[in-house]
Amino acid sequence: xxxxxxxxxxxxxxxxxxxxxxxxxxxxxxxxxxxxxxxxxxxxxxxxxxxxxxxxxxxxxxxxxxxxxxxxxxxxxxxxxxxxxxxxxxxxxxxxxxxxxxxxxxxxxxxxxxxxxxxxxxxxxxxxxxxxxxxxxxxxxxxxxxxxxxxxxxxxxxxxxxxxxxxxxxxxxxxxxxxxxxxxxxxxxxxxxxxxxxxxxxxxxxxxxxxxxxxxxxxxxxxxxxxxxxxxxxxxxxxxxxxxxxxxxxxxxxxxxxxxxxxxxxxxxxxxxxxxxxxxxxxxxxxxxxxxxxxxxxxxxxxxxxxxxxxxxxxxxxxxxxxxxxxxxxxxxxxxxxxxxxxxxxxxxxxxxxxxxxxxxxxxxxxxxxxxxxxx
Amino acid sequence: xxxxxxxxxxxxxxxxxxxxxxxxxxxxxxxxxxxxxxxxxxxxxxxxxxxxxxxxxxxxxxxxxxxxxxxxxxxxxxxxxxxxxxxxxxxxxxx
Lengths: 376, 95
What we know:
The complex is a heterodimer.
Chain A: E1 10-13, H1 16-25, H2 39-47, E2 56-60, E3 65-68, H3 69-79, H4 86-96, H5 104-108, E4 114-120, H6 123-127, H7 141-157, E5 179-181, H8 192-195, E6 204-210, E7 214-217, H9 224-235, E8 246-250, H10 252-261, H11 265-275, E9 277-279, H12 280-285, H13 297-303, E10 332-334, E11 342-346, E12 354-359, E13 370-373
Parallel strand pairs in A: 4-5, 8-11
Antiparallel strand pairs in A: 2-3, 4-6, 6-13, 7-12, 8-12, 9-10
Helix pairs in contact in A: 2-3, 3-4, 3-7, 4-7, 9-11
Chain B: E1 2-5, E2 32-36, H1 42-57, E3 62-66, H2 76-85, E4 88-92
Parallel strand pairs in B: 2-3, 2-4
């Protein structure tokens, strides 16, 4: 799909400082200074990717907005990307624009999610993307600027400005940028992208609407079940329990324990799903079951998915939302709908038992993981 | 002097403009559609609005519809159904 290319809208500014201030004055930044997007820089950015200026990289259907490669390139320059990052930027925009990702929700919701981008393949080396120490923190240009480009596109092209279309109750710092590489060498498993159907040896991005991460701290055991107990407990926290998805980024130290024990990706996913649950009684006591839950067939199915004897008869109604019955103690409500809702990846410094769990945006099903190949 | 490019869609083609439907002068006896955005309390809010409209303006029948997912566009079928049956439609988000 390609949109007609209009003459380039532009403004005249004085020196570099004036240009930076002009971008602030027009609301074109995320709060940090941007690189002034001169025509020459934008043309160099476009030349870094395989797209024509009018190619649509992202179409948001709810508000019918189309983001062309030209607009993506302007925002990539502003974010501080080098032209060689642009194929990854474009693939990430295509991923969040995939119709199944339903970007309107995570981009605007009170939940305030960040757009997580996990990169696999040779692009990681070429672009010096960080999958090692401090991978979520500052320091690596590609991590910082590729993720920042997505946010600038949301701000500038989709009008997702705080208090306007971005109605995040709190948001979180990952909304500035949340892009990192999988540490494929430290992973006990095939690359994440390969597990999601991309041929080995190709570069790919996987995107996810992420709430803020939880540190999962464990230094005391190499036993997989004891170690994973800490993760299951984090997944089942009442504050974030939902039928939604999960991302776990295992620190290399934790990944090594799983490798030594020979646990496959599928076994870890299945174990975590089986152990990440709360009783329906616990959920009711904590006020997690809103009356409206019982009018939503999907949520009712989630609650009673693993209940002994299935859903009770007569079916519960809104009046049952906070009425704890003895049977509710034996109903296990799991995080997500199955093991595939738990995405496992690996990253971080060689030292330290610090992994991370990122709950999905939304108290409902959220949006799926989407993986796209990066064009060569 | 430096020239910098506009990162917004200010210069992009506007989404296809649709003609506005004629506005009824009064609501008495008219069929009113309620389109909830799919969040948990959208319909509760709209039901309250319909009740007020009935009290104050004597509206007729009420047709209810809800998006299946708040993040997705409303389906063409729902739009068609509401357009065929209703004189006006009220939409709301209610979380």
